[in-house]
């Protein structure tokens, strides 16, 4: 850009509403005075999640002036693997409720769906979307990691399996949903998962790195992409975040 911009991280109760109202009144006042042809142009974060992602682009933890009431410790929740700074008057009052996507691969869901749903309930996940789907090859390809795509044999095996039958896609909601689901699934190799913890889901339901039972969104950004892909018509709860494109 040709001109510098001013980036501020602000904190207070009802921050989004109060800031939007203040900027609106300030702009109206400048327009009435008419002393300058320049208009104030602003970009305001729309949600706590967007605020967090934008804040870590411009600031480090040491840049924040937190005061005595703020909390920043190893007990803070994570969003997509990043620590979320929490204050009683800041972004959110506790761990943020997020959505993530779980795809139960062909064969796995038809044999143990009741048990999986029971485990999701015990882990405090709320099912806000469910779809029975036959994956198209291009969709299956989009779910694979860059490492798999670099190996032609592995790529062919994964795509063939994912498109071999019907899969069940669930959109799940809970506090810190993305990381919690990844922790429950465990490593993509079921043998490694069994060594780490036999109760990990891939250890229980997977048989190989290809037929490992599950796909789970690995970050918040990936979860948003997956929700748009599998649930373009929306989700079945009114309090879910909208799935409109989020841009910095």
Question: What are the defining features of this structure?
Answer:
248 residues, alpha+beta, Alpha-Beta Plaits, 2 domains, four-stranded antiparallel beta sheet, two-stranded antiparallel sheet, 6 strands, 40% helix, 13% strand, disordered C terminus
Percent of residues in helices: 25-40%
**What would you call the shape?**
elongated
What are the secondary-structure elements, in order, as H or E?
A: HHEEEHEHHHEHHHEH
Identify low-pLDDT runs. 67-94, 241-248
**Rg, Å, rounded:** 22 Å
What is the number of beta strands? 6
CATH architecture descriptor text of the largest domain: 2-Layer Sandwich
Description:
The chain is α+β, with helices and mostly antiparallel strands and 248 residues long. The chain folds into two domains: 15-58, no CATH class; 97-231, 2-Layer Sandwich (Alpha-Beta Plaits). 40% of the residues lie in helices and 13% in strands. The longest helix is centred in the N-terminal third of the chain and has 19 residues, at 15-33. It is elongated. The model is unreliable at 67-94 and 241-248 (pLDDT under 50). Pfam families: NDK. InterPro entries: NDK-like_dom (IPR034907), NDK-like_dom_sf (IPR036850), TXND_domain-containing (IPR051766).
């Amino acid at each position: 850009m040709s001109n510098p911009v001013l980036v501020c991280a602000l904190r207070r109760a009802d921050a989004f509403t109060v800031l939007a109202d203040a900027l609106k009144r300030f702009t109206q006042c400048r327009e009435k005075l008419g002393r300058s042809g320049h208009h104030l142009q602003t970009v305001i974060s729309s949600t706590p999640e967007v605020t967090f992602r934008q804040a870590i682009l411009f600031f480090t933890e040491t840049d924040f002036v937190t005061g005595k009431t703020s909390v920043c410790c190893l007990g803070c929740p994570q969003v997509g693997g990043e620590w979320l700074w929490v204050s009683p008057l800041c972004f959110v009052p506790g761990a943020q409720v997020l959505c993530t996507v779980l795809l139960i691969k062909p064969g796995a869901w038809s044999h143990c769906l009741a048990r999986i749903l029971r485990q999701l309930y015990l882990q405090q996940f709320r099912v806000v979307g469910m779809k029975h789907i036959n994956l198209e090859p291009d969709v299956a390809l989009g779910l694979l990691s860059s490492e798999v795509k670099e190996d032609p044999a592995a790529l062919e095996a994964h795509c063939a399996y994912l498109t071999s039958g019907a899969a069940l896609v669930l959109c799940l909601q809970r506090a810190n949903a993305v990381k919690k689901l990844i922790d429950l699934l465990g490593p993509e190799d079921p043998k490694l998962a069994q060594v780490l913890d036999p109760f990990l889901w891939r250890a229980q339901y997977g048989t190989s790195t290809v037929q490992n039972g599950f796909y789970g969104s690995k970050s918040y950004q990936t979860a948003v992409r997956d929700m748009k892909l599998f649930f373009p018509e929306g989700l079945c709860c009114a309090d879910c975040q909208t799935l409109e494109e989020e841009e910095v």
